[in-house]
Write a structure and sequence with these properties.
The structure is a single chain. This protein has 4 helices and no strands. It is mostly helical. It has a domain of about 25 residues. The N and C termini lie far apart (about 115 Å). This is 8f603883-0619-4bb7-82c4-926eebc05155.
Length: about 100
């Protein structure tokens, strides 16, 4: 290639490059969707970390009486008055 041909070729190349509009590289739709999902997930995690913690649940104790009294009621001597002498198997059945 001669110097004249090279200069003509470069002039033609520069002329054609300047005429074509610049294009941004396009990402595939799946990659764009994945980027959006990752962004939303990170946003939700950051918001959850910024929220104040929930208040602790109330204590599960009876409001009246002491725990020892509650245990005495549930002990076998306390249940003795609640049981009956009749067993369900000994009850007569009628058909």
């Amino acid at each position: 290639m001669t110097r004249n041909n090279l200069s003509e070729h470069l002039a033609w190349l520069l002329n054609n490059i300047s005429r074509s509009p610049p294009t941004a590289p396009q990402l595939p739709a799946a990659v764009e969707l994945m980027l959006v999902l990752v962004f939303v997930l990170v946003l939700v995690l950051v918001l959850l970390l910024l929220l104040p913690p929930p208040p602790p649940p109330p204590l599960l104790r009876p409001r009246t009486g002491s725990p020892i009294l509650s245990l005495q009621i549930l002990s076998p001597p306390g249940l003795a008055g609640l049981t009956s002498d009749h067993s369900p198997a000994a009850a007569p059945t009628t058909l």
